[in-house]
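Sample pair:
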Amino acid sequence: MLERLFYKKRRFYDDDFDWDNYTSDSYARRIKNDIESEFITKVDPADVDIDFDAGRVRLKGASMHPNHQLLLDAVAYLQPASVHEVGCGGGDHVANINRLFPECAVSGGDRGLTQLEMATSRHPELYGKLGVQDITMPYSSHWPKAELVYSQAVIMHIHTAVSHLVALSNMFHCAKSHVLLIENTQCHNFVKDLTALRDAGHLPWQNMQLHIFERNGARGILASNQALDLPVLSSDAQLRKGLKPSQRRLKRSNDDSARGLYGFETP
């Protein structure tokens, strides 16, 4: 009991998850209780209309979590030939893209083997398309590359040393054209950090344009190697507009950003 209380206190200031204890059982309960009690997680193509011109996926007689819907809309908007999910968890997002956009090659990575086993159990068609990947490790040439690399509520949980900066840099090394971040935007200074990584040479792209991708109240950060017909994103304040400030998260974001030493500067 004391150990559990200590963990809860520690995670309040450090990290939102104890990844060693984030098992498939606990994740399955979270999906069932927190998400599937209100939203569908597995989309049937027969129940969907895709408007590629508008970049929207419309469901018939059902609703998805706004953040999950935002991801599908982004795929419809960008029409990438390939996608890769960082932190794919139970595999629902990869599976939905695979069903709705069969011409798009999909892959997903997660640091938890039990998560991947759960994903292939829920979606057998993903067998061979998912692999163990710790996005906070040094970049590996063995990792999948894709036109669009995305994360859904993953980077927001990383607060150890400069690990979130490493993770962001790695996502760009894996992405050929676009990076989509659907995260709690108060958990990190995403715009500030991405700009610093770009300016100091930590990203492989010659050009990076940040945009807001927003649909139905959900908001994501869409980075592209070329300008898109979307609102340009230039500050974290712009990204957080309309949100109730969390002073704890904002302080932690500033602390995380301050640990970064960028580029190479002589004294």
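The radius of gyration is 18 Å.
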